[in-house]
Each structure stands twice: as structure tokens, then as C-alpha cells.
């Protein structure tokens, strides 16, 4: 007689019918599907349908009535504006994520080295609380060309003027009957030769007396000297008018700090600088030479860098983006850094590694998974960058700063009115983002399997 052994745990239970099988969570599949239906409907309405409609619309012309096939996709690479947008998008993807990730890594390491780390993190992360619109307005002001308004140029001009002398009278020019003629490069030279004992008068105009720098003194007539060449450089004009042209009159101001050169056969044989009353004296070697006022006396003042010009507008906007997102990268990397085994770092130091070697060969490899997450997230983010460029870049240089997201808006709604081309650009953006997303998904799956 055969015996049957009941399964462990009690009497055997009959298997449920095949048609009534439950899911792993103990819920029938149709019940789970019912609960997921609202989310699936939203996903279809907000994601699937727009993508499908964009694919269909990209195959038609601007009006949507004529089928053009892949013509709109060909226009992306044949149109100069759209091709510039593709090139700039590639620059953004290559530069901005790496720059922000690097800054975040440096800031995250610094937070472990400074005593006021909480305040440091707060300052670095604070820009994340600002919208792209507000950040764009802020940096539009930061990059103002006028040093009195733009912070960036104020710093650049301050540093420049510390190491390089600025011109004394940038708007001055010789009077019409002064005998000074333009001699190239912004300099002025007397038409005749000067002699010892015959004072030289070099009148200048073009500056209002009340606009002279400092506290100018009254001009004084030069004294004749047989031992050299003397003269006066002065402003041949005074408020209220009057006086004789070409003569030093009472109330006219001397121009101090002007360099005067004696030139013979193209060579400078002597030079002098005027005093506060405009007078100067050259040695006897200047006898028979011509007098020249070099261009350094009249050069326009240094006004800084054209940050929003065609050549620098893209790096300038990337700088604004890095200011905003460095805090995001710092927080994520700092969280990963907190989980690093400190014993490994100490072991490397015991083995003789310096701090740079510990950072490069131990810390960075251990943080590689976190760095990849930050890098991929930022790559996806910069592919759709739009508002910073639209706000910061002025209209004359916006074409040079153009990216695909901005070109999509311009082609569809910004005056182009070509919804077919705009839809094609949107699909290209989707195709560019998909590989990055797939890499991220595969990385997440590998992390789960560990």
C-alpha cells in the first residue's frame, strides 16, 4: 500500500486554477491593471501621444498640408542657423557637464577640509533655489559691457589698470592751428623742428575743462632755455570762451602727465613728461628734432571684455550654468563621499601617498559611480537648455549662442512658424537623449544586481 507524504507545513493545498492565478503581490493582474490605468492614460496623453504626433508632424511642411518626408531632417544640417545650434549643443554636452562635475567634486572635497562646511555648502547650493529666468537676468547684468554696471568687467578693468597704465586724456586732440599733425597709430607730431631757446606751444582741445581728471592747475607759459627745448601742453579752451587761440591765456588749464618725445629720423632722442601746469623741458639733444605726442596719451580707456559678443557668448552662458548647478553636483558627490571607507584613505596615506595621490587614485575611483550619475544627469539637462541662452545672449549674438532647444522655439514660435522643422528638431533632441538614458538604465540595473 502506497503512502502519501503531506508537504511540510501542514496538509497539501490544491493549486489554484490556471485562470485565477495571482501576481507576486497577491493581486489579480486585472486589478493591478485597473489601478495603473489612470497613470497609463496620463503617460499616453502627456508622453506617448506628443512624441507620436511630433514624428508625424515632422514629415510635413510648415503648413502641415504637404508631405515632405525626411526633408525637414535634411534642413537641420543644411540650414546655417540650425547647424550652428547642433554645433553649440555638442559644445554644451562636451564642456558643461564635465565642468560642473569637476567643480562639484572640488567643492565636495573642500567641505571636508573647512571648519565652516555648512555655511560653505549653503553658499554653493543657494543658486539652485533661483529659477533659470532669475539667473539669466542676474548674469545679463553681470556681463554688462560697461565697467560701471557689469561686475565681470569691473573686476577685469580693475586688474588690468593695476598692471597697465591707462591713457591720460583719451578724447583730446590737437587744435586746428597748433602745428601738430596726425602721424599714424594715434600719435601727433609737429610739422616743423624745434630749437633750443624757442619755447614750443602744443595746444590741445576736445575736453571740457570741468571734465579734466584730478585737480588741474592753471597753465603757465614756457620759459625759454638755451640748454634745452621747453614748452607747454595745455587745454586751449576755457569755460565762457575768450582768449587768444594758440596762446596760454589766464584761466586755461595745464595738461599734466602728458608724454612728449623728441624724434629725429624716426628715432626717439629724448622724452619728458609734463608737470601739473603743462610745462616740460627736453635736454639739448632735442634741438633740431620734431616733437611727438605718442598715442599712449590719447588711447581710449580699457573697458574690459565683450563677454556677450559672438566669440565669448557661449562660454559666458556656460559659466552662468556652472554657477547654478555646481551646488547640485556638490551635494550628490558629498553624499557619496560620506560613504567612502575612511580606512582605505588612511591605508593609502600610511603607504606613503600624498594628498593628491590619495585623491586621484583612491577617492575618485571610489566615487566613480556617483560621478557617472551626476555626469549623465547633467548631460540630459544641458541638451534641453533654453532659457539661460534666451535671456543672457543679446539679440545681435544670439545666433552664435543658439542651441537645439532654442532653435526649436525659434523655428516653431519665434517668428519662423515652421512647425514641421520644429517637430524634426524635437525628434532629433529625443534621439540624442535616448542613448544617454539607456546607458543610465543599464547602469542602474547593474547596481541592483550587486
From TrEMBL:
This is ABC transporter permease. Residues 86-440 form the ABC transmembrane type-1 domain. Pfam families: BPD_transp_1. Keywords: Cell membrane, Membrane, Transmembrane, Transmembrane helix, Transport. Residues 1-23 are annotated as: Disordered. PANTHER family: BLL4140 PROTEIN, DIACETYLCHITOBIOSE UPTAKE SYSTEM PERMEASE PROTEIN DASB. It comes from Streptomyces fructofermentans. Coiled coil: none annotated.
